[in-house]
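Appendix B, example 12.
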Amino acid sequence: MLFIEPAAGPAPFVHFIEHARGPIDINVYYLNSRPILRAMAEAHRRGEPVHVMINGRPYRMSHRLVEKEISRIRATDANVRVSPPRFDRAFRFDHAKYAVTAGRALIGTANWDYSAFHRNREYMLTTSDRSLVRALHIVFRSDWHRRPAGARPRKIAPRLVLSPGSESKLDTCINPVKFVEFVIH
C-alpha cells in the first residue's frame, strides 16, 4: 500500500510497528516522531525486539541533537546502533528509510520526523513481497553487524536500489510516479 505524506501522517508507521510480529528492524536517517517512539516502546512491552540503526552524522545536525535522538530511541528499550563507519566519510550517508519485520517491509523517502509528517511530500510503501523483505533483512543484518551485504540482496530483489551498484535505477526512482511503478512491478 502506498502512503503519501504529509496527508498520511505517522499513522502508517505506527500501524506497521503495532502489527509487527517478531523482531522489528528499522534503518532510518533520522527518527524523532513521538507517536513512532511510543509504538516502539509498546512493541518492546509486548515482547517484540526492536532494532534501530540511525545515521550518526546527519547533514548539518549537531552532535548534541544526535545524542538526544539516540537517548529518546533508547528510552523505548530499543537496541540502537549508529550506521557503520563506512558511512562516516564526506558525501557518504546511511540515508536508508525502511523497516522490516517477519513478512513485511515499509520503505520510502521519509525521515521519521515532524517535517516528514506535517510539511514534506514523501512516499512510503508497505509490502509483503517476499524477495524484497528477505533482501532488506540481509541488508539490515549486514549493516548491524558491520559487514558488507555484497551482491546477494540485489540478486534476491533486483529492483532494490542499493549504493554503490544501483545507480542506473536512480533515474526511475527520482520521479515519484515512476518510483511507485518501479517498486510495485
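The chain is about 40% helix and 20% strand. The two ends are 13 Å apart (CA to CA).
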